[in-house]
What we know:
Layout: E1 4-6, H1 7-14, H2 18-26, E2 36-38, H3 39-45, H4 55-64, H5 66-75, H6 80-121, H7 123-145, H8 152-163, E3 165-170, E4 175-178, H9 184-190, E5 208-213, E6 216-218, H10 228-232, E7 235-237, E8 241-243, E9 247-250, E10 263-274, E11 279-285, E12 299-303, E13 309-313, E14 323-329, H11 334-341, E15 349-356, E16 369-374, H12 378-390, E17 397-403, H13 412-421, E18 425-431, H14 438-452, E19 460-465, H15 467-479, E20 487-491
Parallel strand pairs: 3-9, 16-17, 16-19, 17-18, 19-20
Antiparallel strand pairs: 1-2, 3-4, 5-7, 5-9, 6-8, 10-11, 10-15, 11-14, 12-13, 12-15
Bound molecules: FE2/S2 (inorganic) cluster (FES).
Amino acid sequence: xxxxxxxxxxxxxxxxxxxxxxxxxxxxxxxxxxxxxxxxxxxxxxxxxxxxxxxxxxxxxxxxxxxxxxxxxxxxxxxxxxxxxxxxxxxxxxxxxxxxxxxxxxxxxxxxxxxxxxxxxxxxxxxxxxxxxxxxxxxxxxxxxxxxxxxxxxxxxxxxxxxxxxxxxxxxxxxxxxxxxxxxxxxxxxxxxxxxxxxxxxxxxxxxxxxxxxxxxxxxxxxxxxxxxxxxxxxxxxxxxxxxxxxxxxxxxxxxxxxxxxxxxxxxxxxxxxxxxxxxxxxxxxxxxxxxxxxxxxxxxxxxxxxxxxxxxxxxxxxxxxxxxxxxxxxxxxxxxxxxxxxxxxxxxxxxxxxxxxxxxxxxxxxxxxxxxxxxxxxxxxxxxxxxxxxxxxxxxxxxxxxxxxxxxxxxxxxxxxxxxxxxxxxxxxxxxxxxxxxxxxxxxxxxxxxxxxxxxxxxxxxxxxxxxxxxxxxxxxxxxxxxxxxxxxxx
Length: 492
Ligand code: FES
């Protein structure tokens, strides 16, 4: 009998994104029942899928090879205590199945005995009962003699359950997997979820969540003490626990900028990388125990001792809250910007204050998205895009990037790589070099965009760039049929 698999688990087993699978369901190529899919239907859709060729099998094979041992031990496998618990859980499940089978076997043997007894004591029914007995005998011989073909997806699913656990979140219904030594919080952030948290190190209690079903295990020390009623209700600290079995937990997610508190922290300059003649990437790393909680698209104020401060959009994803990236344009950002271009060194400290702003991704829009960046406007849009990719959104995403300088598409390779790797992402670089005015430049972008992607007229639109470009681009989009409510602009 085919098994039913949760959507995210099925996607992981086949090695495709959940978004692609959702698209198949939406197109009618695959049926889903209560958020699950049958292994039979999946194998029909992906007939070439073989256990030996799956990423999971490969991962297990590599574990056996000494050369990969340490890397896998560090990153892919959970700690041995968690692994032992998961194997124990699997053992319990197998034991249940075995007991059920034994029970059925006893029932069938009892049924045969009963049929024989009745046949002997009721001559009138003997012929019918003999036929029933023969039929039962034949069916049993067939079932027991048949070589059972293993359900490769079910086998892979059993392996996956040992390597990683699936977590469903209430009330949002979102879900994610926990792999390696990740805590619940780390895995949720990597999956693009904006859960509530503070210190990430077991001190503040802000990451409290209630376990509705499943088992968790503490993997990090915590100083915060849960009250007895909290313990009785199943509360746990997400930053210090991982999942032993598949879990359902109750935790609140931030849905607006007002859900994120202002924070101040000191981060270290990890790297300064020129992206072209006028754009520098400033890469900051926060302390492990004092990360920046923010939403994709937000900005922060950066300050350096005696070099003033400036507000900059974060150009990285909240799914990596320790590694913050900024695109600092030469000549902008006052004395702080000057310092970035002249004299700031890796290892120095920067004060980070914020986050600010409500230029946010509309998670509830259930709509495909069009991103229009002008020059440095790519920074907040990169954050939105990376967030959307972490969430494995199945909606279409189109990025049009207008650049006023010849080398203005300063992360062209990254955008092209996304375009190559993701079925639902499309990239359109547009040169505004040589345009007589900002208005003429934006007109070139809008025109080329609508020529190439006319259906984007129904999309949610996120615009970002210098003031000169945003106002004309908004007017041109509205003249082309977009409504004002579709447009979310930010001036950077
Ligand atoms: S985030 Fe502070 S205790 Fe978990």
